[in-house]
Amino acid sequence: MEEPIHRPPVEVAHDSPSEVLRDLRQWFMEHNGSLHQVDVAIIDEAEGCGLVALAPVEAGQLVLQVPMPLCLHVEAVHLSVLRDVVAAEPQLLEKDSQDELLALMLMAERRAGRHSYWWPYLKVMPREYETPLYWGEEERRYLVGTNVGLLTAIMEHQIGQDWKEIHEKLVERYPGVLGGLTLQDYSWALSTIWSRAVGVERGEGHRYLRCLAPVLDMCNHHPSAARDLGELLQYESETDSLCFRPATPVTRGQQCHLLYGPYSNAKLLYSYGFVAAQNPRRGVDYWVKVPPTAPDAAWKTEQLLAHDLTREQTYNFDGTLLGNSVTIALMATVRMVHLSPDEYKYVEKVFRGEMVSLRNERDSFTGLAAFLEKKVSSYPTAVEEDLRSLEKLERVLEAAQGEEPEGEMGLRIGLWTEGGTHQDGTSEAVTNNREEGEGPRQQKANLRRALRRRACALKVVLEDKLVFQETLSSVRHRLRELNADEAALVAGLD
Fold first, then answer.
1. Contact 409, 417 (CB under 8 A)
2. Long-range pairs of 209-213 with CB within 8 A, sequence gap ≥ 24
3. Which of 103, 267, 362, 396 is the most buried if burial means most Cβ atoms within 10 Å?
4. Higher-pLDDT residue of 170, 408
5. What CA–CA distance (Å, rounded) separates 333 from 313?
């Protein structure tokens, strides 16, 4: 007889967020983690928790050390409730399956509740995230026309496919360990990895690991925390641990920030569910393909695919349109599109970022300008109007902020609401609210969340719009220079 699909008996936790953080801290220290002049604290509803200095911290001072045996990663599967499943399914250990195995571990460990080695860590994690993957249909309409909106839809579709092809079958095959898990659990696990994991090169072979590091993943992002993450975070093989050292001094009571990466607000919203107030990084990914009607279209496409610069047309939020410039990779692609047969012998100039000819350069920039003009004119509102709307929205959001940080934090992580909480993250209050209507605290939290999402979307749309406008201005300036050069050339010939 087949074993029924079920979850373990429901456990109810009445811990407050402070008690949950206390349990995490105790577990962390008992397993050789160390905090130096810092502690995890509740910041606010939007940021959640953060790492706060208890005394002045100097630049380069060690504040946090996370032993790798505390971390959740695929090489720790021997500590996981999933170990027997992995032994029976060795394909899960393949290098390309690392995220899938880590997601499966996360789902299984959260399902196991108090039976999981990582339970003190897991119960601090959010029940859901603020990335657009979790937004409703109406909220996602705010992102129409952005790469954030487009890539979220693509990602959602891919998650559904991977669940069907990989994880649903495993859930059916191993109900004792995975029974009852759903697509929503899988989306949560992937969102956890994408927004909280760090990359570590470990061991003699410098094996790359995606690693969920307790306490470290509670550090918040700031664009000016460092030039890159490597300035702040190092893996030390002598102690087999991750060490965090702020790059700049931190005063008592202030947060020790990480730099998640040199990311634009579009990337931050897509992957992490927030935008940064003062973010100098902006850019929009835009690419062109060789039109099938172009002369020698197949040859041109072959040239682009054969070169490292243009082989991959990535949508990773690095940006090919940067406001004051256009990347070499995009310009190489555009120049190739407009290359005439008598210019094929100069094709290497395309990949060196050089002008092939005055005609090719003018046609390339004219084509770019036409696209940018069309994009800018497609927006229904002006930048000035968007700025006023954003300012008004931020004032409303500020006025609506909660007055009980711990209570609001409880709603965020889903462990302490107006009732108890089940071990699988479903609170009694939430369960009751589904039937009887949401409580007033939850209703207010939902309103603030909706306002934050609207503000984030508006900021991303506004910044995209500015990138298009500023890039159009720089492209037009370049066209004026080219026209002047052509006029001077003609005058010289006369």
1. no
2. 209/73, 209/74, 209/75, 209/98, 210/73, 210/74, 210/98, 210/99, 210/102, 211/68, 211/71, 211/72, 211/73, 211/242, 212/71, 212/72, 212/73, 212/102, 212/106, 212/121, 213/66, 213/70, 213/71, 213/242
3. 103
4. 170
5. 10
Q: Note whether 350 and 356 are within 8 A (CB).
A: yes
The gap between the terminal CA atoms of the chain, to the nearest Å, is 95
To the nearest whole number, what is the mean pLDDT of the chain? 88
The predicted model gives 11-40 an average pLDDT of 86
Q: Roughly what angle, to the nearest 10 degrees, separates helices 440-493 and 383-399?
A: 160
d(CA 160, CA 114): 29
Q: For 226-246, what is the mean pLDDT?
A: 95
pLDDT confidence tier of residue 473, bands split at 50, 70 and 90 = very high
**CB-CB contact of 21 with 123 (8 Å):** no
Question: What span, in angstroms and rounded, lies between the C-alpha atoms of 397 and 442?
Answer: 16
Q: Is 77 exposed, middle or buried (0-12, 13-18, 19+ CB in 10 A)?
A: buried
Report how far residue 250's alpha carbon sits from residue 57's, in angstroms, rounded to the nearest whole number.
5
Tell me which DSSP letter residue 314 carries: -
Asked whether the predicted pLDDT for residue 23 surpasses 80, the reply is: yes
Give dist(CA 350, CA 182) in Å, integer.
49
Lowest-confidence region among 76-90, 153-167, 406-420: 406-420
Pair 472, 373: CB distance under 8 Å: yes
- Does the structure show a pLDDT above 50 at 8? no
Local structure of 138: helix, strand or coil: helix
Strand partners, 210: 199
For residue 95, the model assigns a pLDDT of: 64
